Amino acid sequence: MRLRRRKRPEESAWRAVRRCVVFFTTICIVPVLLVLIVTTDSYMRPVKQTPYHRPQFDSVEHLEPNLQNLTGVEKRLERRRLHLQKACKLLGLNVPGNDSLHKPNPWEFLIDTKHNLVWCNVFKAASTSWMYNFNILAGYSPYFLKKSKVVPLSLARQKYPRPSLPFLKKAFNNSVSFLITRHPLERLLSAYRDKLMFALPHTHHRKLGNEIIVKYRAKVKHQKGFKAEKWPTFPEFVLYLLDCVKQSQTLDMHWTPIAEFCTPCMFNFDIIAHTETLQEDQQYIIKKAHLEGLVEPQWRNAGHGTTARQVRKYYSQLTRSQILQLYHIYRYDFELFNYSLKGYLELGQLDDDPSTLLAAITLKDFPQSKNKPRLY
């Protein structure tokens, strides 16, 4: 007869502790993961699935009357224009007010009265190319522009002074007006690489970069794959940017959201060009404004390699909560110009603390129709 082995008290106690740990881990982690799966799916859907966006059309017969006789490029540009109008109305950005989102901002516009052309200069969205074009239209020769040491924007402002709001509104009535946009997170990365990573000595951005290193380097040293550089790392730059927004500081013009920079809901733009379709969109602008033979489609200052190819390298250095917070900074740019987080959010590292990710997710539910996106 085999004797039944008695369980030791400490063994039974340890087993009970393990069961408690598994139980509480399950009830804490599983809900967060479920929320993440459901919510990030909505972040990664293109904006075209929201109620105010035009549905995809299968045939010309289903197009609105003003789209039926247009070319493919014209249809695409008209859909963008209509989408912008509907998004502005839905988000309440078309109602004049006193804040930076609701007060028309004429400061960054260039008006060429000779050629009836109006452009809002969005930095890091083909701005170098069209600054060059505007300088050509102003009468500067290509040779002079190549040899000149003066900043192109300064040259342009000698010919195109910053307009008053009444003058700008009048120009919109009899000019071809356009705006060039870019995916908000690609534009942000381009600004970081151009202005901080490759900042020239003794410039404002070199000084800013040094300040970012001093303040934030100690916070990212422990991160996986960290490598000390002479310039701010991308995670350091993002920490700096998030703090700027939390403290309501004015952002640098190279990474200010377009929704504030150009206040596109306050004006009726004829053309919303995207850098993703820049060649065709530029050709259309030139044809529409009768500029054939004067300027050419181009993308000057491609810079230090194509930014789109660098996305994975840099955004994989961030956590998913950081990427979601960046989304909220540029939320209106995403909405107004029909961009999504698809291809970006999944690159982020999982957060060590699930509550941090949950806080970033629930930011989306704050009422934001009349206020800037908020961060925690």
From TrEMBL:
<keyword id="KW-0808">Transferase</keyword>
<dbReference type="GO" id="GO:0016051">
    <property type="term" value="P:carbohydrate biosynthetic process"/>
</dbReference>
<dbReference type="GO" id="GO:0000139">
    <property type="term" value="C:Golgi membrane"/>
</dbReference>
<dbReference type="Pfam" id="PF03567">
    <property type="entry name" value="Sulfotransfer_2"/>
</dbReference>
<keyword id="KW-0325">Glycoprotein</keyword>
<keyword id="KW-0119">Carbohydrate metabolism</keyword>
<keyword id="KW-0472">Membrane</keyword>
<keyword id="KW-1133">Transmembrane helix</keyword>
<comment type="similarity">
    <text>Belongs to the sulfotransferase 2 family.</text>
</comment>
<dbReference type="InterPro" id="IPR018011">
    <property type="entry name" value="Carb_sulfotrans_8-10"/>
</dbReference>
<dbReference type="GO" id="GO:0008146">
    <property type="term" value="F:sulfotransferase activity"/>
</dbReference>
<protein>
    <recommendedName>
        <fullName>Carbohydrate sulfotransferase</fullName>
        <ecNumber>2.8.2.-</ecNumber>
    </recommendedName>
</protein>
<dbReference type="InterPro" id="IPR005331">
    <property type="entry name" value="Sulfotransferase"/>
</dbReference>
<keyword id="KW-0812">Transmembrane</keyword>
<keyword id="KW-0333">Golgi apparatus</keyword>
<feature type="transmembrane region" description="Helical">
    <location>
        <begin position="21"/>
        <end position="39"/>
    </location>
</feature>
<keyword id="KW-0735">Signal-anchor</keyword>
